[in-house]
Amino acid sequence: MISLRSFYLSFIIAMTPAINLHAYEFDTTCQIKRDLVKKYPDNKIINIVVFGNSVPAGYAKVPMVQTQHAYPRLLSDYLSKKYPTAIINVITSAVGGENSASGVKRFESDAISYKPAMVIIDYGLNDRSTPMVNVEENLTTMIEMARKAGVLPVLVTPNIDLAGDPPNAFTTLPQQAELIREIAKSKGVLLADAYIEFSHYKGDVRKLMAQSNHPNKDGHKLIVKSIIRLFEGSKKCFPTESSN
User: Fold this and answer.
1) What does the pLDDT read at residue 110?
2) Which DSSP string corresponds to the chain?
3) What pTM did the predictor assign?
4) Are 85 and 43 in contact (CB under 8 A)?
5) Which terminal residue of the chain has fewer beta carbons within 10 Å of its beta carbon, N or C?
6) Which regions in the chain score pLDDT beneath 70?
């Protein structure tokens, strides 16, 4: 019998595709990093919206919702500790069971309206039941809407699903993760590759999950790990400091 670990390791992606950031993404990322280190009276409110499905919403074993364990809260805790002089609001705008087709319809009212510096988009888990061409169209629309509003878009690959793919799926979970990587690469968008974090996990992946498709706190820690990387490596954003 094939173990769950062996099953998921068979889908490991050896290397995430290199992403050449769109000039807008590079400039906006640097601006956020510079704003995060500002002190009173120069600091300002920095809103980050996490937009997606039941995972960022904090669903554990349905119907229980544990936002205190979900990655938006963990991200907020990390940023507040790392940047103690910044005013940071991590806003969760996520709906259980939602896919990108529904998400794109509320993107303006439920994400852009918060005037965030960054929006993190997470729909891969539920987008398996949407044709790939439509997923690409939906994510591209949200990317373009974010850029037009001066917001930095970030795409997230999905966590694992111990139950496998739904019977009506157009794509498998690994295919959905790869599609998101390719969209990020082609559009020059920042990518948080949560799926690869789960794939590389060396322990029992069942211990990362509250139910088959919802992570517990340890699972959410892997997701936030992939997002935290986006806030590292700031030397190019501070040329004066890097030249000293």
Assistant:
1) 98
2) ---HHHHHHTT--SSPPP----HHHHHHHHHHHHHHT--TTT--EEEEEEEESHHHHTB-STT-B-GGGSHHHHHHHHHHHH-TTSEEEEEEEE-TT--HHHHHHHHHHHTGGG--SEEEEE-TTGGGGS-HHHHHHHHHHHHHHHHHTT-EEEEE-----TT---TT-SS-HHHHHHHHHHHHHHHT-EEE-HHHHHHT--S-GGGGEEETTEE-HHHHHHHHHHHHGGG---GGG-HHHHT-
3) 0.88
4) yes
5) N
6) 1-24, 234-235, 239-244
| 165: Cα within 13 Å, side-chain hemisphere | 18
Q: Which two tokens stand for residue 20?
A: 């050449």
Distance from C-alpha of 112 to C-alpha of 231, rounded to nearest angstrom:
21
What pLDDT, in 10s, does the model give residues 21-36? Answer: 566 677 888 999 999 9
Q: Which two tokens stand for residue 61?
A: 């074993």
